[in-house]
Design goal:
heterodimer, A: mainly alpha, 3 helices, elongated, B: alpha+beta, 2 domains, three-stranded antiparallel sheet
């Protein structure tokens, strides 16, 4: 039983680290601010979700599990706000995104 | 009524976070929760926007669907970053929700799924930046818009 949980934890940590590494590569590789926000969003959602899932599997049912889930919930609610603030500030400074525009933009 | 709900939410959060259940400490927790509710009520923060309880009955269903979407778009974003097929596009979509909280929820859900970011909000129109035309198509089908309107439950 412990072995199975350990294996699942390792898989979760592996997927989490993979998505963080790919996100970090994207932060360097992608062309402009708006595209880089997507890579950062990948780190925020995929990375943290899988790491927290792995840690929850290790702790079992206790108060620590609740705290870990709460960390996840708060990141889940705050990360889109920071992404939106970054994107909105760039738009307010009249930085236009690279690539095509469909229809009239605000 | 709403202040009572807020008190119970705050106090259950306090109980889960503290882990010490002496008589004195629990009393202090109750006092601090009551004080927080009093401050929120005095600041007129307890309304539909501060405490959107009309989300609660359908929230779990929506969250499961949202997690599925996040997983899917995480995979496709990873593929796009590795392949390097980046064709960013910017467009606007209309929202069909009534309340401001629901509109913000919709914008946040778009931002939360990797590959699409809401860059501006003006009244009922969102400006969305997508990493690829596939992500753009997903938003323009208005599937998420319908889901959030359903979550709001005012229609």
């Amino acid at each position: 039983m412990v072995l199975i949980l350990d294996i699942f934890t390792s898989i979760c940590f592996f997927i989490g680290s993979l998505s963080i590494i790919i996100g970090a590569c994207g932060l360097i590789k992608l062309p402009d601010v708006f595209s880089r926000i997507h890579a950062a969003g990948m780190i925020d959602t995929g990375g943290t979700a899988f790491f927290i899932l792995g840690m929850v599997l290790q702790t079992g049912w206790s108060l620590i599990t609740v705290k870990l889930v709460l960390i996840g919930v708060f990141i889940f609610f705050t990360s889109p706000v920071t992404s939106h603030v970054t994107a909105n500030l760039a738009r307010e400074k009249n930085i236009l995104p690279v690539g095509k525009k469909i229809g009239k933009i605000l | 009524m709403k202040s009572l709900i807020l008190f119970f939410i705050l106090f259950s959060l306090w109980l889960l976070m503290s882990g010490h259940y002496n008589f004195l400490i629990v009393c202090l927790g109750i006092i601090s929760c009551v004080f927080c509710v009093y401050v929120a009520k005095r600041g007129k923060l307890i309304d539909d926007e501060g405490l959107p309880i009309f989300f609660i009955p359908r929230l779990l269903n929506y969250l499961i669907w949202l997690f599925k979407e996040i997983l899917k778009s995480n995979l496709s974003t990873a593929k796009v970053i590795i392949n390097g097929q980046v064709e960013p596009e910017t467009f606007t979509v209309k929202t069909s929700q009534i309340t401001d909280v629901a509109k913000v929820t919709y914008a946040n859900s778009i931002t939360l799924t990797p590959g699409t970011v809401t860059t501006k909000i003006q009244k009922g129109v969102l400006e969305v930046h997508a990493l690829n035309s596939d992500f753009g198509k997903d938003v323009r089908t208005n599937e998420m818009d319908k889901k959030v309107t359903w979550l709001e439950g005012k229609k």
